[in-house]
Specification:
The chain is an alpha+beta fold. It has 1 helix and 3 strands; from the N terminus they run βββα. A 3-stranded antiparallel β-sheet has the order 1-2-3, with helices on one face.
Length: 66
C-alpha cells in the first residue's frame, strides 16, 4: 500500500503572553486543497507553551497529516 501525499493550506497564529516571558498560545490550521470532492480540515491549539515547544509540536502535527 502506497501512502499518498496531499497539499494543504497552512495557517499559524502565535500570540505572546504579556506578563510572562517565552510563553505563547499557538493555533495551527491545515486545510486540504488538492481534491475538489473531499476536504480535510485539521486544527491544533496549544496554550501556555514555550516558542520552541510550540514550534516542535506544530511541526509534528503537520508531519502526521502526510
Amino acid at each position: 500500500m502506497q501512502a499518498s501525499t496531499h497539499m494543504y493550506r497552512i495557517a499559524v497564529c502565535v500570540r505572546a503572553y504579556r506578563k510572562f516571558t517565552d510563553v505563547y498560545d499557538y493555533d495551527v490550521s491545515a486545510r486540504q486543497i488538492d481534491d475538489a470532492r473531499q476536504r480535510l480540515v485539521s486544527a491544533l491549539s496549544l496554550s501556555g507553551v514555550s516558542f520552541a515547544n510550540g514550534q516542535q509540536l506544530s511541526n509534528m502535527f503537520l508531519a502526521r497529516l502526510q
